[in-house]
Amino acid sequence: RLVRLVSPRTSFSVMAAALLIRMATARVGAVSVGARALSTVQQTTTISATTHTTTAVPEDIALDESRDTHEGGGRAPIALPPLLQQNTDQALKESGLTRKQLLDDVTRIQHFLNVREAPGNTIARRPKPRWRRRDERAPEFKNTVSYGPRETIALLAARQPGYYATARRIFEQMAQRDPACAPRSMLDFGSGLGTAVWASHTTWPSLTRILCVEPSTAMATMAQQLLSDPGHGAPAIAGVEHQAVLPATVEGQEMFDLVVSAHTLLDLHDLRARSDALQALWSKTRGSLVIVEAGNVEGYRTILEARAILLAAAAADGPKPGVLVAPCAHAAACPRLVAAVERHGDAPGPVEIRTPCHFPVRAMYGHAQALTRQRALYRHDVDKFSYLVFQAAPAGPSQPRIVAQPARRAGYLQYEVCADNGQLEQTTSTRSRGTWAEDKGRQWGDTLPWHSSSSS
Fold it and tell me: Would you state the torsion angle of the CA atoms of residues 15, 16, 18, 24, taken in this order, to the nearest 10 degrees?
C-alpha cells in the first residue's frame, strides 16, 4: 500500500525489487538449512560408523530424540525391540480397520483407561470433574471391559509402547540395584499383550520359563502373534506358556523368581478379588513381586491399597517375610497421602488426592501408533506410572528416591526426595560435592544414595 502512494510509475519497480530481495532471503535460508541438515547427517553417519550400528534411524525419530521433554527425565525414549515393532506394525496393518475406525476405538479405550475406578477402594479418592457428573451411567464409564479383537487392536495402538517402556525402566532399576540378580522363572499375571515378557527378557536373558496368565483369548492370541519370528520359524522368546487362570495356591506349588502384575488390579471387580490375587501372587514369589498401575490418581490409590495388603502380609507371622524395596525407602505411610489427609483436616466428605506418587518414562511410538495419539507430530511421548517392588530376600537397604523433576540452578541442583524416615525432604547438590558428576545425570525416579534424613 505504501508503494502505491509514491507514484504509479515507480510502484512496479519497487515491487519487483522487493520480490527479488524476498527470493534472495529465502534462498539464503534454504542454503543454511541445507548446511545444517548436511552436518547432522554427517554427524549421524560418524556416530553410526563408530558404534557399528546397522539399524537405519528415520530422520523424524532422530530429530525427536534431540528434543528434550521437561517431564520425561531428559533421557532418550525407550523403543520397542525391532522384531516386536515389526510384528506390531504388521498386526495393525492386517486388522482390517480403517484409520477412522482405529482412531474411534483408541479414543474409547483411552477414555476408559483414564476414568475407570477401583470399586471398594476406601483410600481417599480423586477429585471428580464437573463434566463427569452427568455421564456416570454411560457405558464407557463401566469399570470392566471385555477385550475382544477390536479392543485388543485399540490397546495395541494406544498403550503398548508405554507399557513396554514402563516395565523396561522398572526392571532396569531392579537390575542396577542388584547386579547379581538373574531370575530364571517368571509369572506374568494379566499378561495382556506380553509387554512385560519382552521387557523382562531384554533385561534378564537368563529367563528360561515364563508363565503368562491372561483370561482374554484375543489378548493371548495377539501376544503369541507378537512373539512370532518369521525368519526362524519359532517364537522369538523361548519358554513362554499361556493359560487363562492363575494356578491354585497349594502346598508344594511352583515358585517363581519374578512375579509381575502390570495394569491388572484395576480390572478386578472388588477389594476382595484384588486382595486374594495379591496374596496368591505373593505366595508364589520366591524373589521379587512387581505391581504396576497407571500414574493417575486412581492407579496411585490402587498401589496404596496393594501396599497396605502386602505390608500386612509381610508383617504377619509366616515362613516368608517380605520387604518393600521400591519406590519407597520406608514402610511408613506415604507422605503424599499424609499431606492429602492434613490438607483435608476436619472437612466433611472423603479425602481427595490431588498429587499422586508417580514417575515418568519416555516411550517411542511407531508410525501407526503415533497417529492415534494427540501429539502425532512426535514419535515419542511421556507416560507416567505408579509401582511397587516387594522382595522376599532383599539385596540391601532401600535408598531415598527423587519424586519430582529436579530443579537445575546455576551451581547447584535441588531435589525433592522421599527419605528413609517417611518424609518428603528438599536437598541440594553443589559443585563441591564429590558426586556432582553423577548427580547431574539423576532424574525423576532415580535413587539418591548419599541423602539421609539426618543430612537434611
Answer: 160
Measure the CA–CA gap between 101 and 75, rounded to whole angstroms.
Answer: 34
Q: What is the pLDDT of residue 137?
A: 43
8 A C-beta contact, residue 306 and residue 275:
no
Cα(211)–Cα(320) distance, integer angstroms:
22
Average the pLDDT over each of 94-98, 121-125, 162-166, 307-311 and give the range with the smallest value: 121-125
Q: Which residues contact 360 (CB under 8 A, 6 or more apart)?
A: 71, 72, 73, 295, 382, 383, 384, 444, 445
From the list 168, 220, 170, the residue with the least C-alpha distance to 194 is 220
Q: What is the spatial distance between Cα 255 and Cα 31, in angstroms, rounded to a whole number? A: 64
Please state which of the ranges 107-111, 193-197, 199-203 shows the lowest mean pLDDT: 107-111
Question: Cα separation of 255 and 71, whole Å?
Answer: 38
End-to-end CA separation in angstroms for the chain: 67
pLDDT, tens digit (0-9, with 9 covering 90-100), for 252-301: 788 899 999 999 998 888 888 899 999 999 989 888 999 999 988 888 98
> Alpha-carbon distance 299 to 159, whole Å?
15
Contacts of 242 (CB under 8 A, 6+ apart): 191, 212, 214, 220, 223, 224
Instruction: Pull the grid cell for residue 245.
Output: 487362570
Which residue, 306, 19, 330, 361, is CA-closest to 167? 361
Measured CA distances, 303 to 294, 384, 444 (Å): 9, 14, 19
Closest by CA to 235, choosing from 222, 244, 243, 224, is 224
Q: pTM score, two decimals?
A: 0.78
